[in-house]
Inverse folding.
């Protein structure tokens, strides 16, 4: 196994004189080759996805090492959702689904339909879902899909991140947060004092009702207007202090608009952090 596999790597690498000499790499035991390739895959899976995907074609051993990393995080967009829907059973080892839907008229668009089909599958390893949509309809539809699936296929979801969260006075947080979630990140859209009051009024009852459920709630502020950002931070901190609640955390991000070029960069940084993102921020109440 070792000789045939490294021979294949040698054959692929030994092409032109312009290439880096790989003779030292080829002489390594195949087990070490796998370790190097696996480490490189973790580093490059987002920036060089096509290259990582090509590694799965080298041999069966490398395929088995690389493919779980390749499908560990699934990023669904309007450009790849059809392809994902065709191969949805391949993503049963996915740990993090990232749904990116920027269509503000998303009543029945492709991403919405494909996400629904995807979430009807069984994901035994799925831990986290991130939802980013500038459409309140789509965002809430996806959250309702998650709630409907938690009792069956998606009961393993413990981490939920809503990157553009709309809060309405008639709702409570429990109306859309799946009961299995223990780590929650909210990035609320707060334009003024009314939105601030609606959000804060819903926050305390949710924490009270889920004393045994939610263990960490991180609130980020990129979509909180600069006009009320200071008041918002003070109000949320007040909830944590009054309740003596150590579960509330906050990250005071700079305010971004939907057409801000930094928005994609911030989203990419979040994706690179993976599950570590849920453990950022500062604790609002320290006993």
């Amino acid at each position: 196994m070792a000789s045939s596999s490294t021979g294949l790597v040698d054959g692929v690498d030994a092409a032109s004189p312009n290439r880096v000499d790989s003779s030292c790499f080829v002489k390594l035991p195949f087990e070490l080759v796998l370790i190097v390739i696996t480490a490189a895959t973790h580093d490059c899976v987002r920036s060089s996805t096509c290259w990582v995907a090509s590694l799965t074609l080298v041999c069966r051993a490398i395929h088995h090492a690389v493919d779980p990393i390749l499908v560990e995080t699934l990023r669904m967009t309007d450009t790849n959702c059809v392809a994902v829907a065709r191969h949805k059973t391949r993503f049963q080892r996915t740990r993090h689904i990232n749904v990116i839907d920027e269509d503000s008229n998303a009543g029945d668009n492709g991403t919405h339909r494909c996400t629904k089909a995807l979430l009807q599958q069984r994901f035994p390893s799925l831990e986290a879902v991130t939802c980013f949509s500038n459409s309140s309809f789509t965002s809430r539809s996806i959250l309702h899909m998650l709630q409907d699936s938690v009792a069956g296929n998606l009961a393993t979801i413990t981490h939920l991140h809503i990157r553009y969260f709309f809060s309405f006075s008639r709702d409570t947080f429990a109306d859309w947060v799946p009961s299995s979630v223990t780590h929650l990140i909210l990035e609320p859209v707060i334009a003024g004092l009314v939105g601030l009051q609606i959000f804060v009024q819903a926050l305390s009852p949710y924490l009270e009702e889920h004393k045994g459920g939610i263990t960490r709630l991180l609130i980020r502020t990129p979509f909180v207007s600069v006009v009320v950002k200071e008041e918002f931070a003070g109000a949320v901190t007040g909830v944590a202090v009054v309740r003596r609640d150590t579960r509330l955390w906050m990250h005071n991000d700079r305010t971004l608009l939907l057409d801000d070029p930094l928005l994609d960069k911030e989203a990419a940084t979040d994706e690179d952090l993976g599950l570590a993102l849920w453990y950022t921020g500062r604790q609002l109440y320290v006993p």
